[in-house]
Amino acid sequence: MARALSHFNGKPILSLSKPNPYHPSPPPSSSSSVHKPTTVAMAQTKSYWASIEADIEAHLKTAIPVRQPVAVFEPMRHLVFAAPKAKAPALCVAACELVGGDRAQAVVAASALRLVHSAAHAHEHLPLMDRPNHKPGIHHAYGPNIELLTGDGIVPFGFELLARSVGSVQNNSDRVLRVIIEITRAIGSQGMIDGQYHESQQGARSNEEWIEHVCMKKEGELHACGAACGAILGGGSEEEIEKLRKFGLYVGMIEGMLNWVVGHEEEGLMDVVERLRVMAIKELENLSGRNVEPISSLVEVASLCNL
Questions:
Q1: List of long-range contacts for 202-205, beta carbons under 8 Å, 24+ apart
Q2: What is the 3-state secondary structure (H, E, C) of 16-73?
């Protein structure tokens, strides 16, 4: 596990596996720990995330109506809305608002992230018999050939939505182009595909280094991308973009590891989750002058990954 988090986005970062005397992880009791949220604050936070999800959902329902050719758009719509929701799209919107942007600036990118995640989920759950661990995670309303082709069609449709969001009034073409590049990297051979490939291989499933690598690539990269894209579209500084990118990485890895813990006896992973939580909050502490309370709720102890 020592090398799994040693580099991200081409830059060295702190490893979770072994104590580093030069960059020690802050203990949970340090100033980076999150204060205990009140019942009112938690209710407001849930309402905030619910409103973001509702806006993304509304945009997608408008973008993917059942129209001609019905044989294409009906399964596309089904697979998009049948897939479980990752936090990356909502994180994209929240990061945009955090750096001073407007929600409307990020909802298209958030929708594109939802689309690419849905396509990946559909492909990952195809009923293929040669997989070491078959995942019957979705109802297969269509045959595997249709679901395979539809997943392939969903991804470019997401990029089409992004390209169409470029407008002369907003003068956002450079930001949108950068977001397209961010998403292609996150879902490509060095991102989600890498994680899915390693997950599909036979091996020691209890190996923490292997689990950490899969979670970093499969969930971490997508959430890092979501947070960075939101900050880019909201006009955040380069420092803010990179801080939120790391925050998103940790959020995604936490989500992946908690999903892995379900049904597995991996007590050691919970120690890694706690360290990731502390590191995520540390990134937000460096965003001076910003209201980080809503976004920090993603890693608060009382509601960890349950919003």
A1: 202/132, 205/264
A2: CCCCCCCCCCCCCCCCCCCCCCCHHHHHHHHHHHHHHHHHHHHHHHHHCCCCCCHHHH
| Sequence letter at residue 198 | H
Question: Phi, psi (5° rounding) for residue 8?
Answer: -145, 135
3-state DSSP call for residue 234? coil
| 76: its two tokens | 């596309």
For 7, the 3-state DSSP assignment is strand
According to DSSP, the residues that pair with 7 across neighbouring strands are 12
Q: Could you tell me the sign of the dihedral formed by the alpha carbons of 111, 114, 118, 119, in that order?
A: positive
Q: What is the pLDDT, as a whole number, of residue 20?
A: 38
Give pLDDT tens digits for 115-140.
Answer: 999 999 888 877 765 555 555 555 66
The model's pLDDT over 204-215, given as tens digits with 9 standing for 90+, comes to 555 788 889 999
Q: Nearest Cα to 249, choosing from 3, 2, 14?
A: 14
Alpha carbon of 104 to those of 23, 36, 48, 90, 244: distances in Å? 39, 31, 15, 12, 19
